[in-house]
Write a structure and sequence with these properties.
It is an enzyme of class 2 (transferase). The chain is α/β, with parallel strands linked by helices. It has ten helices and ten strands. The strands form two sheets. Strands 3-2-1-4-5 form a five-stranded mixed beta sheet, with helices on both faces. A five-stranded mixed beta sheet has the order 8-7-6-9-10, with helices on both faces.
Length: about 350
Amino acid sequence: MRVLGIETSCDETGVAIFDDQHGLMAHAVYSQVDIHAEYGGVVPELASRDHIRKTLPLIRQVLAEAHLDAGEIDGVAYTAGPGLIGALLVGSAIGRSLAWGWQVPAIGVHHMEGHLLAPLLEEPAPELPFIALLVSGGHTQLVDVTEIGRYRILGESLDDAAGEAFDKTAKLLELPYPGGPELAKLAERGDPQRFRFPRPMTDRPGLDFSFSGLKTFALNTLNTALADETDPSRTRADVARAFEEAVVDTLVIKCRRALRETGRKRLILAGGVSANRRLRERMTAAIAAEGGETFYPPPSLCTDNGAMIAFTGYQRLRAGQHEPLIFKPRARWSMGDLAPVTRS
């Protein structure tokens, strides 16, 4: 079975083709970073308009790279949510229209399920069951995964997601958009001993997260330090390092706790923040110390992409799931509402 995947949930247009015999045959991503950088964040209307311009050309590109024509596609998967509703409408309308024109089944995919399954595209793929940490600009969740489609949310952010906190703190530090990677880069030059930030919600039971207070702590620390500082660039680097250390430590503590409480031995990390080098190093060492294994998608599949949508769509289409002509993109959508993947 060969599935075309389309991702348009935010500010990246991703298209890919997954084949059950050959794996990922082709994928391409167009980033809108340059468009939104002028505004310091994603402008939803501009994002939607650019998806309109880029989606069909990218579909033609991946078909050509895979040496396929439209008649060789067996199904279409598109991101149906969560995300920016205007951006979702573009991908949903194009994906459903192509499926109707090609007379193949279509399926709307949950964006975070796509991220969750992305590590399964790598070899060796993690065996089920496992714990998943989904950590991105819009979500921070710990999920117990017993099989594909059966998810139990163990904990999630009660306010800002980790990626969102990275971006907002980067803005406080006057770093360019997108802020998360820039903050991580600045943190490399920081002194880890100068400032100590709190590790929120780690001193109480439970697996939920809260990162909004770290932004305020970073702002207060920065303002106090800059009042007597003759080298502002050094202070900004030290604040960035302390912030990153706090986020990474918090995520590691919660993941270790999740493994202990569930008895699982495998952890996967997925989402844009999972590309963070310090997080990968610290998490891998901590989980190994617990006798467990850690899995990640390749960096190219950490950010939003069509490959994860094609692969997730394939899992559901292969199980006989598909949608009628009416499509229902949704800005908010809980993974707990997803139907299990049962194969006939």
